[in-house]
Amino acid sequence: MSKSNQNLNKQLISLTADTICTFFEIDFSNLQRNFEEMFGVYGVNLGAEPIYRFCPMINGTNPMVWRGKEYQPLPISMNGFESGADGRLPRPTLSIANPEGIFSKIVHSNKDFTNCKVTRKRTFARFLDNENFQNKNLNAGGNNPFGRADPDSHMLDDIYFINKKTVENKNFIQFELVSALELEDSFVPARVVLSNYCNWTYRCSIGCKYSGAPIETNSGKSLVEGVNPDLFQKSENGKSFIFQEWKSDVNEQSQRGYQKNEVVKIVEKHNSEDPYKRAPQVFICIKDHKSASKHHPFFDTDHWLRDECSKTLGACKKRFGDSDKNLNLESGRTINEFNLAEQSGNILRFGGFPGTERFPVE
After folding, report:
1. Mean pLDDT in the chain?
2. Which of 144, 312, 328, 330 is the least crowded, having the fewest Cβ atoms under 10 Å away?
3. Predicted local confidence at residue 38, as pLDDT
4. CA distance between the termini of the chain
5. Are residues 9 and 153 in the same domain?
6. CA 314, 318, 324: angle at the middle one, nearest 5?
7. Among 75-84, 240-249, 321-330, which range has the highest average pLDDT?
């Protein structure tokens, strides 16, 4: 047994153990990061590393340091690790403070952190880095006064993945977490076999390929009634849907806002040629405004609604199949008839595997 393990075990069984320090990491490297938009609109600098590090403790005005990494002080908690007698895996909840809605802006611009990895790290105060104790007025030596810094003396990491956002208000945001055993299933090359969920990136040129009118939000709110039929215009190849490119002019004299029912498209500024990162995001304006820069579609849900796909077979049919509720175009055509004719191949793009379902879905 190593010296570090011996030190840790002594603290675990000690009757006078030190305070346990808890650290959290949220890895969102699997997401499309809107760093430039966040900094340009709100002045929030997210840094270059796609990992947020938080701790529910304070160190004066400085972040806590563990194993050379800085963890920003923020009220955060993780509960629900207990396993039931029925054999079901625990689904902990992660609650994070949302001061002035700052964290909401980060979450909204990063797809609600779905499938992001969350790691909980724990150690005792006596093993913390010496960088936490550099106040010469209180600690002349600058070393850990509770013991000896040891980056290898820590408990096993708890690793989970964000399944969904369950609560969001002005005070805090809460996520439901799942283990890797629940997140993953059978694999084919580069894809997970899921019976009722589409893996394609919405509006991407690979897989989904949907490029038509906005249909609904992720919660199922219809956007069809707000679409202007005049946006369905003729092109050399028949018909095409006309999108506006969302722009925010820094010159206040020439700046313009948007009117209700206007549809805009935003393509992130990525140097990468990866088509998944360049998939456009479409929004429909629901309230008139005079200044575009003050009402960015990514973050202002009072003025904009995002066109999203719930990744189900029903959602795919609304875009590539038939639906009873559609906006009528000239000659009696509906949006879905238009979309079906526009998509190459005229086939359903659903990327799930319905045939793998063992039992009928009611």
Report:
1. 75
2. 330
3. 53
4. 54
5. yes
6. 105
7. 75-84
Side chain identity at 237, as an amino acid letter? Answer: N
Contact 93, 176 (CB under 8 A): yes
How far apart are alpha carbons 349 and 347 in whole angstroms? Answer: 6
Contact 10, 2 (CB under 8 A): no
Q: Are residues 123 and 11 in the same domain?
A: yes
Could you give the 3-state DSSP secondary structure of residue 85?
Answer: coil
Contact predicate 44/106, CB 8 Å: yes
Comparing 75-84, 151-160, 161-170, 334-343, the range with the smallest average pLDDT is 334-343
With beta carbons less than 8 A apart as the criterion, state whether 42 and 299 touch: yes
Across the chain, the runs of DSSP E, i.e. the strands, are 20-27, 51-55, 64-66, 69-73, 76-79, 93-97, 117-124, 158-168, 172-178, 187-188, 191-192, 232-235, 238-241, 244-245, 263-266, 281-285, 304-306
| 177 and 287 co-located in one domain | no
Q: Given a cut of 90, is residue 352 above it in pLDDT?
A: no
- Identify the CA nearest to 143 among candidates 156, 126, 155: 126
CB distance 147 to 337 below 8 Å: no
Closest CA to 116 of 25, 28, 24, 23: 28
Q: Which residues of 166-186 are buried (b: 16+ CB within 10 A; e: fewer)?
A: eebeeebbbbbbbbeeeeeee
Query: What is the C-alpha to C-alpha distance for residues 261 and 271, in angstroms, rounded to an integer?
Result: 31
What's the confidence (pLDDT) of residue 186?
Answer: 43
What is the C-alpha to C-alpha distance for residues 77 and 128, in angstroms, rounded to an integer? 20
Q: How far apart are CA 261 and CA 226, in angstroms?
A: 5
Measured distance CA(111)–CA(108) in Å, rounded = 6
- For residues 273 and 161, membership in a common domain is answered with no
Rounded Cα gap, residues 329 and 341, in angstroms? 13
Residues 6+ apart with CB under 8 A from 17: 11, 124
Share of the chain above pLDDT 70, in %: 68
> Of 184, 213, 240, at which residue does a domain stop?
184
Range of the domain at 307: 224-354
